[in-house]
Design brief:
With 287 residues, the chain is an alpha/beta fold. It has helices spanning 2-27, 39-49, 72-79, 91-103, 139-156, 161-188, 202-207, 224-236, 251-260, 274-284; strands spanning 33-36, 54-57, 83-86, 108-111, 193-196, 211-214, 241-245, 263-267. The chain has 2 domains: 30-118 and 129-181, Nitrogenase molybdenum iron protein domain (Rossmann fold, 3-Layer(aba) Sandwich); 189-284, Nitrogenase molybdenum iron protein domain (Rossmann fold). Helix 2 (39-49) crosses helix 5 (139-156), helix 2 (39-49) crosses helix 6 (161-188) and helix 5 runs antiparallel to helix 6 (161-188). The protein starts with a helix and ends with a helix. Bound molecules: zinc ion (ZN).
Length: 287
């Protein structure tokens, strides 16, 4: 009996060892590498070219793209990669892209926001020409981003151009369906105003004719005065939904939600699954 157990244990150990080796070897890829800034960009890039390229987010899941610093391993991997896809104007990008360009002169840098109609940032009072960086949180912009990504892959790897264009068309169909679903929710009745800690839904609110009230004050924790004014404004506009993001402190948003007896909802605009997140946001605004 003892012996049988021992044999079983040895078998299990060997088996799990084998599995671990298999998993490890699977993550080592000899495909050419592409870096992107955030997870939703990785999603779009993988849908278009994941088969031929290995795509990595510079700002990994759970990190704040306004403040993230790349690791030495990432900097080395970037130097060996083919291209870097940026979203345009995130804090991380403003801080790091000029340095990354200097250190990786053979890497092609592509700004996927090219062609987007930028909106003024609601939390950058000091610098009026600085546009809002959260361009990807609405279908109309996602379609432009996807076209820019597809163009880049066609340029990098013309041999598989047909496939990239086919994948682009599929993605654009999905984006269009997402927009149709949101428009359905809007026409059934949607909250006209919502509050949010960090203003990541500026373009979404603009596209669907609703108003975003930002709790953060100029990128910082709100002062008691700002908080009081905001609560009054939320009250007069009958705000019923307060969004928070996991990367930010939720304390002030909780105070506001309690005062207003509003629903506090955690969203993740950096979700890899772009469609799931955008539809979740719209559903939470249903009347
Ligand atoms: Zn942000």
């Amino acid at each position: 009996m003892k012996n049988r157990n021992l044999v079983l244990l040895v078998c299990l150990t060997l088996l799990s060892g084998g599995l671990i080796t298999a998993c490890k070897s699977k993550t080592v890829s000899d495909k050419p590498k592409i870096f992107v800034t955030i997870e939703p960009l990785r999603y779009f890039a993988e849908q278009i070219a994941g088969h031929y390229f290995d795509i990595e987010s510079m700002v990994p899941k759970g990190n704040n793209p306004e403040t993230y610093d790349p690791t030495p391993r990432q900097l080395m991997a970037l130097a060996d990669s083919k291209a870097y896809l940026s979203i345009g104007n995130l804090g991380f990008e403003k801080q790091w892209i000029p340095k990354l360009k200097e250190n990786a002169s053979n890497v092609k840098f592509c700004d996927t926001s090219l062609g987007i109609n930028y909106l003024e940032s609601s939390h950058q009072h000091e610098n009026k020409d600085d546009y809002d960086p959260h361009i990807w949180t609405t279908p109309s912009n996602a379609a432009i981003i996807v076209k820019n990504i597809s163009n880049l892959f066609c340029e990098l790897d013309p041999q598989h151009q047909e496939e990239y264009i086919k994948n682009q068309i599929q993605l654009l169909t999905m984006i269009q369906q997402t927009d149709a679903e949101i428009r359905g929710i809007v026409s059934d009745g949607i909250q006209e105003t919502f509050a949010i800690y960090h203003p990541s839904l500026t373009y979404f609110a603009h596209d669907y004719g609703i108003e975003q009230l930002c709790i953060e004050d100029n990128g910082k924790e709100p002062s008691p005065v700002h908080l009081k004014e905001l609560i009054n404004q939320c009250r007069s506009e009958q705000v019923k939904v307060v969004f928070v993001q996991q990367e930010f402190n939720t304390h002030n948003a909780e105070i506001i939600a309690n005062e207003l007896k509003a629903k506090l909802v955690t969203i993740n605009p950096l979700n890899y699954n772009w469609q799931e997140e955008i539809i979740k946001i719209a559903r939470n605004l249903k009347k």
